[in-house]
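Hi everyone, sorry if this is the wrong subforum. Our group has a chain we'd like a structural model of before ordering constructs, and none of us has done structure prediction before. Sequence below.
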Amino acid sequence: MAGNRSDILLLDVTPLSLGIETMGGLMDVIIPRNSKVPTKAGRQYTTSIDGQVNMKISVFQGERALVKENRKLAEFDLKGIPAMPAGLPKVDINFLLNADGILTVQAIELRSGVKQHVEVKPTYGLTDQEVEYMLIDSITHAKDDVAQRMVIEARTEGEQMVYTAERFIQKNGAYLAVNEIAKTNEFIEALKDVLNSGNKDLILKKIDELNEFTRPFAERVMDMAISTAMKGKAI
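Answer:
Right subforum, don't worry. Here is the predicted structure as tokens:
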């Protein structure tokens, strides 16, 4: 900085991670802390409910696993997503942090082209001491945060599995035997019973049991749908 060296380049970096809230209140980091500025990053997401036409995008800053422990920067809705089964919409969320420290967050649904964006200044109102506190806080709670994230991810996966299995029975019950439906419901209830247990391994075990029992049914229904669609057609 005194001018004695000419082979050093000083670069701005973002002091804290930037990301969005995902299911279960988890922080999904898009731009990690210490990324060089300007920078751009993005990730693709989808819907979790059949027929979902809106998606709330909540932008956070911080290093903790749960968004409630981080700093909320902005929130906006991506509206007009075509009504499709869960998992089919493709939503690109892009973060662009420019040299002036302005963060632009854009969400676009690729199938329909609907888009929305917001601009914020992540460093506004933050002192160096507050940034340091947030970093120390994340290190102090790192172990607990990892454990909590794993439980929440397992519970979210379990809830999605319950939703999918119940919808499958509702739509395809005519193709299943009475005992198959009854047994599937038993597995669904067993999974529901452990969702709030806080036991990651138990939740994942019940997910696997439900998945293994219902897989043959899904394959059978798929084969019947293909057979019906191909009737009268030569290959």
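For your construct planning: Residues 18-140 form a domain with the Substrate Binding Domain Of DNAk; Chain A, domain 1 fold (CATH 2.60.34.10). The two ends are 73 Å apart (CA to CA).
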